[in-house]
Amino acid sequence: MIIVIQCRDQVGLVASISALMARHHYNIVSLGEHVDVAENLFFMRLEVDGNAADTQTLEQELCDILPPQALVKINPKPDKKIVVLVTKEYHCLADILVRNYFGTLGASVQCVIGNHAVLADVCRRFDVPFHHISYEGQTKQQAEGQITSLVQQSNPDYVVLAKFMRILSPAFNSLFPMRIINIHHSFLPAFVGASPYKQAFERGVKLIGATAHFVSNELDEGPIIAQQIIPVNHGYTAADMVTAGKEVETSVLAKALKLVFDDRVFVYNNKTVVIE
Amino acid sequence: MIIVIQCRDQVGLVASISALMARHHYNIVSLGEHVDVAENLFFMRLEVDGNAADTQTLEQELCDILPPQALVKINPKPDKKIVVLVTKEYHCLADILVRNYFGTLGASVQCVIGNHAVLADVCRRFDVPFHHISYEGQTKQQAEGQITSLVQQSNPDYVVLAKFMRILSPAFNSLFPMRIINIHHSFLPAFVGASPYKQAFERGVKLIGATAHFVSNELDEGPIIAQQIIPVNHGYTAADMVTAGKEVETSVLAKALKLVFDDRVFVYNNKTVVIE
Amino acid sequence: MIIVIQCRDQVGLVASISALMARHHYNIVSLGEHVDVAENLFFMRLEVDGNAADTQTLEQELCDILPPQALVKINPKPDKKIVVLVTKEYHCLADILVRNYFGTLGASVQCVIGNHAVLADVCRRFDVPFHHISYEGQTKQQAEGQITSLVQQSNPDYVVLAKFMRILSPAFNSLFPMRIINIHHSFLPAFVGASPYKQAFERGVKLIGATAHFVSNELDEGPIIAQQIIPVNHGYTAADMVTAGKEVETSVLAKALKLVFDDRVFVYNNKTVVIE
Amino acid sequence: MIIVIQCRDQVGLVASISALMARHHYNIVSLGEHVDVAENLFFMRLEVDGNAADTQTLEQELCDILPPQALVKINPKPDKKIVVLVTKEYHCLADILVRNYFGTLGASVQCVIGNHAVLADVCRRFDVPFHHISYEGQTKQQAEGQITSLVQQSNPDYVVLAKFMRILSPAFNSLFPMRIINIHHSFLPAFVGASPYKQAFERGVKLIGATAHFVSNELDEGPIIAQQIIPVNHGYTAADMVTAGKEVETSVLAKALKLVFDDRVFVYNNKTVVIE
């Protein structure tokens, strides 16, 4: 059983929590804890070797010994539901579909929504519903309305933007606060905006990277979950950098999803605590 | 104050330990814990925001609530003492001397012992005593006897083999169990023995690495503290690989020493737990 | 057009080769060259901005100016054909199938042969023929005979062992010399043989890796094409190490295949030259 | 002998150059070449196994066969001279002094100039002249005048800013065009300006890096020579990030200096070609 706690810090928190576990005869197999001293915040991920018959009661018992407004989640939805939004690039989506098909994603893909149709076939091959919502011939608001409606029908735990090249409105984002995960080409906060690979190429960078982050309302500025880089050199054209970037994007999004679906990521103050 | 605990695992350990901290009004700033479930062993590194006036009493209080034979160390010697053994290569020693001089090593170098004299001058420049104990003209046993005597005079917490190219006897090793740190060229357990770079070159490896480990009586087989690699390619001669390897050796030894001197490394069953 | 040359080294080789290119008005876009001085061997990969109408004539012209026994390949089969051998693990195969489907593999998968049937369905989903050749109920020799026959029918440029857990005989290997590519868990030459992850776990390694190599007749000892590592720590069980290892295996095999299919890998003396 | 060529590209350049080498009976041991197709520029680094008795004649012979305005350097100053500018941080300077002392820097340090005096002692220990030029009590222009005068007396090939925390004027920079090397904390072009580690901490980045670059007149925007990163996590305070950053700064500056002093770095259009 996994227990996740986020609350105001105070002396004796670990003691009270682990005493409660001991009282229930749950042995603590793994305990990750972090205190943000400056902000007086406490984060804990607890893995114990039993399962509560009644998680609501355990949750209440935890809240009773924690400071007010504590956030407690007990083994929340072992099989999380996700919706994936895509445009034309296949690399992140295919990786998700493969893991979904073989049961190693840690979540199940309810459907894929694309603003282009090119990725419909690969979804069909894996028996995953694909919805094509074009932005052509209708307003951005109308298209997003259709997307919102489809996403809400799936009632997902998380929405994954797997190279979705349209900017979603604050209204959409606010429906899924810190539950939308995006993969961003190049480094955040470097080269914010359009054509980052072109910018990187012209600057002659020796590394390119990718960042997986939660979506907030500031473009590409939400809390960072994971980052990785790969080395490049002068022999890379801008197109080669894009190709190399796709490998690192696929890898870093996979890593971020695993962390999130495994309840290892806490969010506060536009940053994350990742208890590995 | 840093508290380090290693003992048999049982339900409620974290609770009892942190309750004791709470009773003393020590707030837990950082808590790293690991349980080896198969071996039923418990490891904890605790950083609290106070200092015990009487560490012996606190240690006794901890032992009273822990299973028998628990190992407890409280902020053990913030300024650890080390002796460094070298042969001819400067890279690891110079890095240690620089950090020692600028006060960022986390330990103080009592003296350097070399079986060659070439590194005497760099020690002199940093006002660190250098002893030249040649293996020429005397038996290995005699030379090691002189080294042992010099090391014991310094009463060090750790002995660092910074590219010391002689094999120390089990007798020497047993004087400092899990307190001798070695840096080994190339990967452990790959290319064990002589000329690893030559072996690596002939195999056309694409990575070379270094391993910092505690010394046990099996050559190059003690518990691993840290490992790193760097990429190489066909353009590297065996000599280039040695040069590149020195960079990674310097870096990985520095990292391992920092972890050990910061009380983050536990040893059991010929392996380590490193709580970062 | 890509031109690949491997021959005895002598003064003036680059001059003669590039003079020939100039005479044909081929501008050299990229030139990678390596000389193994000790072995007196010369390797060159040339990318020029034109295509020879008659590659056989150009090849002859090159051989005329090179030392005897030179190996020359001109843009050899831009669309290479491969056969993939698998057992039960999906990660490397799925990555290959996805790239094959989207046309970014640099080769086309003729068929997949498995000694278990579990990966038949994923091949079927991508319209790639899957053949199940069980080793149960027949001798190893009989099973390998069936595999050989199937592979030969596809007339592949390369055979990829994508986690094929059976050892192929020297007879099979000699049919495809330096044209069989294997991905090996853990490091070569470390932990050779069975249960490398168990060995790595028990040693408490801090890195695990994977090696893609050509298959020779010494088990896991053929020329290395690419290697990568990922950091692990004491929190990884042996099973976690296997999971982490799969990510690095997938990544390093993909990289090795790209290098081979792009004609960047030369083999000699049981090692490779990789001109990137 | 190392020969470095940068010129307009045209068909047959490699042929003419290597024919000239063959005529002189210089065997080409290593040849690195790059063509920027879009800009029609040609770069070559040639290592041959002989030394020209008369480099000026060879240089003229090369210019005769190259397009107009070609830049040719023949084994330029095997022992380059450098001046190092510092402020208070020791990590980069100490690394340079150690390599300088042991003869592995590829250049010789003529003197160190600091706008604070704290690093005088470590220079004295290595018998390297240290000049303290304070910016206190005089105008920035006056201080820079003194620095300029001292640097010019040493007639250095390169000026290394090893954590020099003052901004040099365009006038100073123009005296040493593409011959001033700086190490910049954090990523370029991310977090440009003050307190990058604070910015990185507040953003919760998972990687921090360092960039070594030539100095141009736009702050932190000159051609990039080398970049590296290290992973960090939520457990790092801003101070920990600074400490970790120093390790990567030291390492990346060392790598960049080695590349530059080994004549592997070409500059054009505010970017570099690094032929490794």
How would you describe this protein?
The structure is a homotetramer of 276-residue chains. With 276 residues, chain A is α/β, with parallel strands linked by helices. Chain A folds into 2 domains: 2-74, Alpha-Beta Plaits (2-Layer Sandwich), CATH 3.30.70; 80-274, Formyl transferase, N-terminal domain (Rossmann fold), CATH 3.40.50. Chain A is 33% helix and 29% strand. Chain A has helices at 13-23, 55-65, 91-101, 120-125, 140-154, 170-175, 196-203, 238-261, and strands at residues 2-8, 28-36, 41-48, 71-74, 80-86, 107-114, 130-132, 158-161, 180-185, 207-214, 224-231, 265-268, 271-274. In chain A, the strands form 3 sheets. Chain A has a 7-stranded mixed β-sheet with strand order 7-6-5-8-9-10-11, sandwiched between helices. The first copy, chain A, has a 4-stranded antiparallel β-sheet with strand order 2-3-1-4, covered by helices on one side. The two termini of chain A are 16 Å apart.
Summarize the structure.
4 copies of one chain form a homotetramer. The first copy, chain A, has helices spanning 13-23, 55-65, 91-101, 120-125, 140-154, 170-175, 196-203, 238-261, and strands at residues 2-8, 28-36, 41-48, 71-74, 80-86, 107-114, 130-132, 158-161, 180-185, 207-214, 224-231, 265-268, 271-274. The first copy, chain A, is α/β, with parallel strands linked by helices and 276 residues long.
Question: Notable features of this structure?
Answer:
homotetramer; 276 residues; alpha/beta; Rossmann fold; seven-stranded mixed sheet; four-stranded antiparallel sheet; 8 helices; globular
